[in-house]
Specification:
Elements lengths: L16 H21 L17 H4 L5 E4 L4 E4 L17 E3 L1 E5 H34 L4 H35 L13
Antiparallel strand pairs: 1-2, 1-3, 3-4
Amino acid sequence: MGSGGDRAPTGRWGRPLGGAALLLLLLLLLPLLLSAAAEPTPPGTACSQNTNRTCEECLKNVSCLWCNTDNACLDYPVTKILPPASLCKLSSARWGVCWVNFEALIIAMSVIGGIFLLAIVTCCCCCCCRRKKRNRKPDRSEEKAMREQEERRVRQEERRAEMKSRHDEIRKKYGKSYLTPFCLVRG
């Protein structure tokens, strides 16, 4: 395996796929954000005044809902998350922008939410696996390498002790003190 650790899956041009999904999301939501920010109608204006006009005129007021089946501009039922079928079918209801109906909006948001949750779960699993890998017991090859390293260390210590005893004998033989810093001759 190459160095660098785990990386995100990449697309055809080598960019992470998460960036492509984010770019796609921004491109889809940009018109919605721009239309909501452009020329808001005063909140006191009744939505029913825009009935039998265009969808764009109706949706200038963010509290309005456009129904394509009967070209009606209705007050959005703020007490409910989704407009009831008696008010307007989801496939023909528009809110925010005219080119996205509620069904497509629900499906898109569900897919984005599912991908987001899947990404969080995947990240948590990866973090847990890495933590387990660090805390796990060493396998046979690692144990063998650790034993060999310990044996080498013990042999090195024995060699050091042997060399020290030889040097001490030589110092005694020639009358040099190993207690002085420069091994000066006593006498």
